[in-house]
Amino acid sequence: METSSGGSSDEGRRIFKVDTWCSQFRNGSNPWMARYIYALMFLIANLLAWAVRDYGRGALTEMERLKGCHGARDCLGAEGVLRVSLGCFIFYFTMFLSTTGTSKMRERRSTWHSGWWSAKIILWIAFTIIPFVLPATVIRLYGDVAHFGAGVFLLIQLVSVISFITWLNDCCQSDKAADRCQIHIMLLATMAYVICLVGIISMYIWYVPQPTCLLNIFFITWTLVLLQLMTSVSLHPKVNAGILTPGLMGLYIVFICWCAIRSEPGGGKCIRNAETSTKTDWLTIIFQQS
Question: Which sequence ranges are marked TM in the entry (predicted)?
Fold first, then answer.
């Protein structure tokens, strides 16, 4: 049995390599490609949320006819982002429920996961439209629950980032690639540390204009301490993981710190350019969407 299953797995891999991406998308034959399509759909949802929030008042005047929008007031701005986010959540949660417990690649539910894209795109569009007809009270309730979901999302994202960085570091330090990747590791790690230091210094300049901004000073300084701590642990003789892992992980925590501090409400004394802090961009949309 093990031999036959191994043979079918190898045969499937050969099919995935021979088929083009277009045919794999049409036939739903590549489960590994599904993650990229789902990521693309998530990106489109974020761009839609950005458009609804910043440009919806001029382009989406037809929303005034929807009962749940109350003259488009509750379907644009921050609540518009929540409506797009709710549709995205319903779609992915439906996919989760319909594929949970799948253990074999050739199961029917696995085929549903990696195929049927035409049906799933129609389903995704429908789930995106439905929240725009819901009353504002439901959307605000979802917004309260989404705060908890955002924390879970960040935790899963953290685990995924750590797993990817660990896998990349192990590949670069393997016996086969150690000599070939040594220069690349040094360049990538050096660039990561330089970006981290530049980011931390920039945050001190932009978000600590006064010594009284103690909360910003704490978070920025703690980020610097974490970067130093990760480097020390990684270079410890008992760990000996090199400088690539803490460098890349440092990029992530600097980015998270920057996104957290810049979300401070506009008009505060701890933002050097407070008048521009009220303007939204794609990073704000992504974090509010997730």
Answer: 36-55, 76-97, 117-138, 145-165, 185-207, 214-235, 241-261
**In 70-85, which positions are buried (b, 16+ CB within 10 angstroms) versus exposed (e)?**
eebebbbbebbbbbbb
Question: CA of 19: how far to CAs of 11, 23, 28, 69, 86, in Å?
Answer: 12, 6, 11, 46, 35
Indicate whether 31 and 115 sit together in one domain: yes
Q: Residue 53 falls within a domain, yes or no? A: yes
Higher pLDDT, 122 or 111: 122
- The runs of H, that is alpha helices, within the chain are 2-18, 21-27, 31-54, 56-59, 77-99, 108-114, 117-129, 136-172, 178-207, 214-234, 244-262, 282-289
For the stretch 6-39, pLDDT in tens is: 444 444 444 444 455 555 555 555 667 777 888 8
Same domain, 116 and 205: no
- For the record, the structure tokens of 200 come out as 């931390």
CA dist., res. 79 & res. 132, Å (int)? 10
Q: Which of 195, 192, 68 is nearest to 139 (CA)?
A: 68
| Beta carbons within 10 angstroms of residue 240's beta carbon | 9
Asked if residues 254 and 207 have their Cβ atoms less than 8 Å apart, the reply is no
Are the C-beta atoms of residues 98 and 112 closer than 8 Å to each other?
yes
Residue 189: is it exposed, middle or buried by C-beta count within 10 angstroms (0-12/13-18/19+)? Answer: buried
Amino acid at 275: E
- d(CA 29, CA 19) in angstroms, rounded, equals 9
Q: What is the pLDDT of residues 53-66, one digit of tens each?
A: 777 665 555 555 55
Cβ-based neighbours of 237, under 8 Å, separated by 6 or more = none
- Whether the pTM exceeds 0.90: the reply is no
